[in-house]
Amino acid sequence: MTYFEHLKGSSDPFHTFVNLIVDFLIFAVYTFGSTWFPLYLLAIADIKGQLSLRIQQLDVYCETKTRDNVFVSVGVAVQYRVISEKAYDAYYRLSDPTEQIRSYVFDVVRSTVPRMELDEAFASKADIANAVLEQLTTVMNDYGYEIMESLVTDLSPDARVKASMNEINASRRLKEAAHHKAEADKVKQIKAAEAEAESKYLSGLGVARQRKAIVNGLQESVAEFSEEVEGSSPKDVMDILLLSQYFDTLTHVGANNLLLEHDPSVVAKLQAQVGKSTGFYK
Question: Which of 86, 147, 206, 266 has its Cα between 20 and 30 A from that of 245?
């Protein structure tokens, strides 16, 4: 059965109209000849509309909220084209295909994003795009449209939410900076304390060695003096050394412009006190 034979047996009004046109064309060919056929065809031709087979893009912006109650504006770009084999369905079955696509995008976005928190939504843009693509591919193919790609081009929360997020990040950075600064100060103080302890330890070693050298020198001096001066005792030598140290002390005190009361008998008293406390002169 040919296409025109199929039309003759159809009860559809459009098919009936086409059938009448075919009959008229056959009559015109037999009556006026095939030379004038194109003119008659142009006379009855009527273009109802045009469909582009190019890939088109529809930008959809949808406002919704996340699971943590943050309102966001989601931008979705849908790339689609007309299936040439289904041009009839693409033109006649939908009065406004872009609004149909927009409605499905709203439905998918507003059912997917509310199940995510804000940070998760930013990290799951590909999941949102895939959900939109799957839904549109299933539905729009029946209407003669092929969905090529779905992209989430924008995910923007409210300006105040952005400002608060920036403040949170800034506070976190400041906290980390303060922590690192405190750690640095701690290291400095520990190193300074270790250096001070080492310095005092070395200073103590120096003082101990100095006193040991002084004691050794005094012992040698007392021994040599006792040997060279007959009738002298170690006590006499110590008296002389104490008196010498006393005058040295007065010299240093006088260099600092200080006036102190003094008595030469202080040397003897100091000697007696030292001897009594140490038991040196028993």
Answer: 206
